[in-house]
Write a structure and sequence with these properties.
The protein is mainly alpha-helical. Helix content is 64%, strand content 10%. The protein has two domains: 9-81; 85-131, no CATH class. It is built from five helices and three strands. The protein has a three-stranded mixed beta sheet with strand order 1-3-2, with no helix packed on it. It is elongated.
């Protein structure tokens, strides 16, 4: 089973290209060294293994704290790009009826979608649209 990534590759690259890049590299080197040492735990006592595992968790937390702002920035940018389309179809249908169009078929399609609710959400081609 593959572990889900906490951060996107882009966020990691952005962090590595920032002023934190040198520290992130130091963390990676130290973490690899500790992991190798812990993997040969038979040569160490329980206390020494526990200390190394604790240090690994500290390094992971520091690494995550350095990368997290870049992931949050990417998430904010992605959210700003996402467009939510809200359409009041009843108003559209009324306007089209006023113009002389037969909308009985359209009402027959939209009413079952609403199921007595005032709003519903439909997804088409990956874009979300709220129907009110």
């Amino acid at each position: 089973m593959q572990e889900q990534r906490k951060f996107s590759r882009k966020a990691v690259w952005m962090a590595m290209d920032s002023e934190h890049g040198d520290r992130l590299q130091e963390i990676a080197v130290e973490r690899i060294r500790l992991t190798r040492e812990v993997s040969d735990f038979r040569k160490m006592g329980k206390r020494e293994v526990a200390d190394k595992l604790y240090r690994i968790s500290e390094l992971d937390a520091e690494r995550d704290a350095l990368i997290r702002p870049f992931q949050e920035q990417l998430d904010r940018e992605a959210q700003q790009e996402k467009v939510k389309l809200t359409v009041d179809l009843r108003k559209v249908f009324n306007k089209l009826e006023e113009e002389g169009h037969d909308m009985s078929g359209a009402y027959a399609i939209i009413n079952p979608l609403l199921n007595g609710k005032k709003t519903t959400t439909a997804t088409t081609f990956g874009e979300e649209a709220e129907v009110i």
